[in-house]
Description:
With 206 residues, the chain is mainly α. The protein is 81% helix and 0% strand. It has helices at residues 2-7, 12-32, 35-38, 43-52, 58-67, 69-79, 85-103, 107-138, 143-196.
Amino acid sequence: MLEIVQSGGWLMVPILLCSAIAAAISVERFWTLQQTRVAPSNLLAEVWSMLKKKEIDPQKIRDLRNQSALGQIFAAGISNSRRGREIMKESMEEAAGQVLHELERYLTPLQSIASVTPLLGLLGTVVGMIKVFALMVQNPGNANVLAGGISQALITTAAGLSIAIPALFLVGYFQRRVDALSVIMEQEAIKLVDIMHGERDSDPRL
């Protein structure tokens, strides 16, 4: 493996660096974008239970805000619930915008890695081919030099593509995951608004 990396030349360094960054982002996003961490399914029922028992106080709101992304949206709404339905809804929408920004964190760098690594690989191949032709001038008619040089030059392209393809797939996967979580949080937020303003059955499961 080390010989293959060395054969690819100095451009293998940024390609491998991109690989490490993409792996770190992927692990972090897999951990962060779990539904239990972003939008727990039982959170609305818990919040409504506290509201009915009049257990909501500033400390509970702070705890709710720090609990999850959906909790952050609920906390914004509850804090402004006495100012009317529209103000409550607007405050939750503002909080949702911040939450969505956090959920999409690092997806742009991952997209950039998916775009840049094939170009780095292609650049490595071009540089390698230039070296091959220089050697051919010095050793005309030596097919072994040409074959070996081309093989080494293509290593960077293969490395770039092997990183770009999974990265591109993961960008799409994480974006779909964010979209799905956004829909869930929007639905839960609407339920809370309707329940608190008497426009929905008090059972949050409905």
